[in-house]
From TrEMBL:
Coiled-coil segments on the chain, per record: none
Gene3D superfamilies the record matches: Cytosolic phospholipase A2 catalytic domain
Stretches assigned to the PNPLA domain: 73-260
Note on domains (UniProt): The nitrogen atoms of the two glycine residues in the GGXR motif define the oxyanion hole, and stabilize the oxyanion that forms during the nucleophilic attack by the catalytic serine during substrate cleavage.
Protein name, per record: Patatin
Compositional bias of kind Low complexity: 415-433
UniProt similarity note: Belongs to the patatin family.
GO biological process: lipid catabolic process
Database matches in SUPFAM superfamilies: FabD/lysophospholipase-like
Record keyword Lipid metabolism present: yes
Name of encoding gene: LOC107773086
Length: 433
């Protein structure tokens, strides 16, 4: 292996080929790491030993590693109807702005993939869809405000009882997204629902939309499908595919595992992600459902919520175990525990908003809960807010390190921005970040 490297360098010298330093470094990286599978940094010409016998890059040299893929996962509604996740993202975005000094930073700038279910899918659409000016349509604070003001419309129904009123959230979403489709998202987006036609989960995916027209859907329809508590019919932009959808919370309350699987199996867009050590994941819960009080079989909806909570916890346990020794640095789960809000159907909209925000803020101040291999859950000293603060530092560190790397960790296909009245067309533009 080493002999092959020496032989190649000697051949270059004997032929007296003149190559600049950067070309030489790239050639050496390709030779050592890919042609011969060699991964010893001591033999990389891009490194030298310092006085402490530590390897450091030569001055002006870009580092070799491709970095980590940053994944954001957002649960379905939970007891806070998405507000806990929205508050978490508002805090995370504010922290990123404070730490970087960039006041126009968006959540989408610091993540490569977002997966959102139910209200989490709506948040994903708001935060990762390209606006008219080319930047994401919503900041995290604006998305929080939207969820608070649109809570009843998103959940489709007003007060229960004889005069139950059903809203049509698709109209609200259609006005909001104005014909934009999955192709108009700025990063890799995954939003689930359950298809009653095929009796199987269905994942709306930006990557699939760019590959096949039959997989591109209007974002208004995607959002309605993932929050639907009644069956809704959704068609692809070209009309070739039709699904009968109910909400993502039914099939994938916690979409973290789906996001991780997507990254590790999508070598076109994430060529160097081979294991959990190559990922940075934050999974945002929305508070455990309060449907567990009283008779769990009081209604089909209550039973579905409890089943969803159990499934979300199982995903958290499985993901935590999968990360193993990396779970403390590479995986963070934010979830509210043990706080049940008052029933407030009869209160005013302003009072409902105030109570929901207060509960969410209390959840963020709770000590973080971590899943431990074969031991269930345990409280740690850091609060949810502390964990988000630490994770913000990791996101910034990864963002900065990409400026000094030769190999891009992400190669996303890009779609040409579409008019708000029609779908986007795919271009050959490649994005590295």
């Amino acid at each position: 292996m080493a002999a092959a490297t020496i032989s190649t360098i000697s051949m270059i010298d004997s032929n007296k080929m003149e190559v600049d330093k950067l070309t030489y470094e790239i050639f050496s990286i390709l030779e050592n790491k890919f042609l011969f599978g060699y991964n010893d940094p001591k033999l990389s010409p891009a490194c030298k030993q310092n006085s402490n016998n530590m390897l450091t890059p030569f001055a002006g040299t870009k580092t070799v590693g491709a970095g980590k893929i940053r994944i954001l996962s957002i649960d379905s509604g939970g007891s806070t109807n998405g507000i806990l996740a929205a508050k978490s993202l508002a805090h995370l975005e504010a922290t990123l702005r404070r730490k970087t000094g960039l006041n126009n930073t968006h959540i989408a700038d610091f993540f490569d993939v977002v997966a959102g279910s139910g209200a989490g899918g709506v948040l994903a659409g708001l935060l990762f869809t390209r606006g008219k000016d080319g930047v994401p349509m919503f900041t995290a604070e604006e998305a929080l405000k939207f969820l608070l003001e649109s809570d009843r419309k998103i959940s489709r129904c007003s007060n229960r009882g004889l005069f139950r009123r059903v809203f049509r959230p698709a109209k609200m979403f259609d006005k909001l997204f104005s014909g934009l489709t999955l192709k108009d998202t700025v990063k890799s987006v995954l939003i689930p629902c359950y298809d009653l036609t095929t009796r199987s989960p269905f994942l709306f995916s930006r990557a699939d939309a760019l590959e096949m027209d039959g997989c591109d859907f209007k974002l208004a329809n995607v959002c309605e499908a993932t929050v639907a508590d009644q069956a809704v019919e959704v068609k692809s932009v070209d009309g070739r595919r039709k699904i009968t959808a109910v909400g993502g919370g039914v099939t994938m309350n916690n979409p973290t595992a789906a996001a991780i699987t997507h990254v590790l199996n999508n070598k076109q867009e994430f060529p160097f992600a081979n294991g959990v050590e190559d990922l940075l994941v934050v999974s945002l819960g929305n508070g455990e459902s309060d449907s567990g009080t009283g008779n769990v079989m009081s209604s089909p909806a209550a039973f579905v919520k409890i089943a969803g909570d159990g499934a979300a916890d199982m995903v958290d346990q499985a993901v935590s175990m999968a990360f193993g020794q990396f779970r403390n640095n590479n995986y963070v789960r934010v979830q509210g525990n043990g706080i049940i809000g008052e029933k407030h159907e009869s209160t005013s909209k302003g009072e409902r908003m105030r109570k929901t925000v207060a509960i969410s803020e209390e959840m963020l101040r709770q000590k973080n809960v971590e899943s431990v291999l074969f031991e269930g859950k345990k409280l740690v000293e850091n609060t949810n807010l502390d964990k988000l603060e630490i994770f913000a530092g990791e996101l910034i560190k990864e963002q900065e390190s990409r400026k000094t790397r030769i190999l891009p960790p992400v190669v996303l296909k890009q779609a040409s921005p579409s008019p708000r009245t029609s779908s986007a067309t795919t271009s050959s533009t490649i994005s590295s970040f």
